[in-house]
Amino acid sequence: MTSLRITAALGLALTACEDNPSSTVDASSDAAAAVVDCTSATTQIDKAICQASGFLGTLSSSQKTTANPVFTDTVSRTKWSNLPGQERPGARMGDLSATQQAAALEMMSTVLSSDGMVDLNGVRAADTYLGTMSGGGTYSGDNYYVAVFGTPASTGNWAIMFGGHHMAFNITFVNGVAHPIPNHLGVEPKASFTVGNQSYGPMIEEGAAVKAVFDSLGSTALASAKLSGTFSDVVIGPKEYGTGSSAAAKALFPTGSNRIGVLVSSLTTTQQDLVTAAIQQWVSDYDAETAASLLATYTSAAAYADTLVAWGGTGTTPSVDVNGTYFRIDGPRVWIELSCQSGVVIQNATHYHSIYRDKTDDYAGTL
Amino acid sequence: MKGLAILIIIVLGLGLGLARPAAAHDVRGEVVFLDVGERAVAIEVQVPILQLELARRAPLGQVPAATVAADQAALRAYARRYVGARSRDGREFGVDIRGVTVENVAGHDVVVFRGQLTAPEGADARWFEVRDDLVLNEVVTDTAYVFLRTDLQSGVLGEAPTLLDYLHYQRRSLVVDRSPGTRWRGFTTVFHLGMEHIAEGTDHLLFLLVLLIPAPLLVRGGRWRDRRAARAGLAATARIVTAFTIGHSITLVIGAAAGPVLPGAVVETLIAVSILVTAVHALRPLFPGREALIAGTFGLVHGLAFAITLDGFGVDGPSLAIGVLGFNLGVEAMQLIVLVVTIPWLLLIARHGGAYRRVRILGAACAGIASLAWIAERTAILRTPVPAFVERMASHAVVLLGALALVAMVLATRQSSHRVPRDRPRRAEPSGTP
């Protein structure tokens, strides 16, 4: 804690040189004090704008060039990936001071819900964990990148990207509305693990919720919900990486008779509730307003009349512990995939990759 | 030796075993390269090991190269099923899978399938619909990136493959339309390539020039002493150049059609040796009267080097023909230009025995030193700054030519009392006429 106070004090000394009246650091209290004071913001969008601007305000001008690209830099906006070591836009968390990191995380905790922050912190911790298990290399919670595209404002377009290995939060703001897709979350290990005396399990609930859907299907339904072929990952991962357009991903959504699975509206209410609970695991990572709106769209009766659940893999019942097992929720808009693959560092267990996309609203339709 | 080999395989196997799970995380796609000819398309598919294992539901083990070598027939049959092309009227191309190997590309081990797709009768390979289901037949999450690597008739020579598009589980084939290309475009492209190749081929040009230095001279008493008649000198030059041209044309055709005959490093070393031999010959006649024969013989070696440049162009008969013809004509054209601007000055200087002797010795000595340095470098014995220096000099060839011309003109305007009289009584020594 002492080192944190010293760094915070240094941070104060540095930020005192910045022209940013809303940045305050109370060096005498512990790290719970806010770096950026947004108490005057009342609406969700105002808070997001305040936090994002506040975070940018903690940066030097050279840091800002990296961390604040223009919104029209479409190529960079598509540079998200599940892989470690890929080129990503933004400032690397490990290169930021404690104050700047705190400001970044405050920004994220405004646009994400507490569930979302559990996932964010958990996946970062998992990378630190993999680092210790594999002797370092590219695995570290420091290798996560934060970027704010454009100028945060209640009109016009801007975006936040936060990501690294097994994580991509891409939130595009259009006229004050947050569009949090596409989103990637993955984790190895998928079971709980400990880092620094704290226990994490960021995707345990996601996996359980999806598993519950398919556990509730009888053998006939499971058979008709089975996709043919082998799945070595999610289907629509970062296929548009570096292309500046969502076309490469859009081409991969199945259409018409290629959409296989069990229709959600044909399921019992209990089973439909399980599907809703599964969708919620991804959608509820975002602020309450955004999440509620999206969830309503995805789970309406009309939507469920065109939403399929499907799985792939070996055997007649899917198991999350078998390499190659794959799950999908395929709606008119919602697209959620969960794939289970052999571990890379921890080799005797499967690990998760997941994707949450919106067929008509990825990147708020701006790419 | 065998024990050592086994030990190495075990160690490599362990290393691969530890390294491969990391590859399991990086699920990359396939890469497809197309070399488009007129009647056929050469196709090369690089498949990440994991993807092939998943598609065939058959592991490749700890030493994939060994498994692939042992399973050649099965893998070729597998590829024949899943790789193919269709013509515009919907008929299938003939598929000939020529080999399956394991190679390391950009730090990753991949299985490489190489084959030839031949257009059916009455159709050509300028428009086709190619498909690669090697992995996509089973693995839904695969992507295959299709690149155009060579297309002579469009002037694409393979240095910078361009991404055409990619295949995925919902798009299993791709239309490739190269119909705007023409044979003439292909010809002019390789013609320019041939000209460039020789213009930058310092060693080829040096060989030829040094071989031609003694052309205006005659041997007497085992040394270069006398001067030939101007016409005889020109005739000798023409014979030598023709013989060199015939020599390199032969091996250019053979090498382009049959593939590399000798390893590139060996060919380059032999070329340097050829320069050394001609340099010595220019100092002391080694083979007086047989320059044309020597030019032709060494020409065979130089032709092999040219053939290496054309590797990959001979997708089919017409492409090979255009490639070889165009390239060779380009080489000859540039060769002719170099000779036309150089030889007249040499012939002029040759009228002045003393001056020409100095030019001959200087030229031969420089060529000799360069060739020794090249031999040392190309056999990895010794690296010297000489080759780099030679290349720098060559880039200032115009200056050197100007100096040569200046010497010739100065000598021509001077009343020289050192001219060796043309008509000397013939002796019993062998004459210099080849």
Q: How is this structure best described in words?
A:
The complex is a heterodimer of chains A (367) and B (434). Chain A is an alpha+beta fold and 367 residues long. Chain A is built from twelve helices and 13 strands. Mean pLDDT of chain A is 91; it is low at 1-30. Chain B is built from 13 helices and eleven strands. Chain B has helices spanning 2-25, 49-56, 64-70, 72-82, 183-199, 202-212, 230-258, 264-283, 291-309, 317-349, 353-378, 386-395, 397-413; strands spanning 30-36, 40-48, 83-86, 94-105, 108-118, 127-132, 144-151, 156-167, 173-177, 217-220, 223-227. Chain B starts with a helix and ends in a 21-residue tail after the last helix. Chain B has 434 residues and is of the alpha+beta class. In chain B, a hairpin with a 2-residue loop joins strand 4 and strand 5. Classes of the chains: A alpha+beta (367), B alpha+beta (434). The interface between A and B is medium-sized, with 25 and 22 residues.
At a glance:
Chain A contains twelve helices and 13 strands. Chain A is α+β, with helices and mostly antiparallel strands and 367 residues long. Chain B is elongated, with a radius of gyration of 28 Å.
What's the overall geometry of chain B? elongated
Described by its quaternary structure, the protein is heterodimer
pLDDT < 50 stretches of chain A: 1-30
The total strand number of chain A stands at 13
Instruction: Tally the helices of chain B.
Output: 13
CA distance, first residue to last residue of chain A: 44 Å
Nearest-angstrom radius of gyration of chain A? Answer: 21 Å
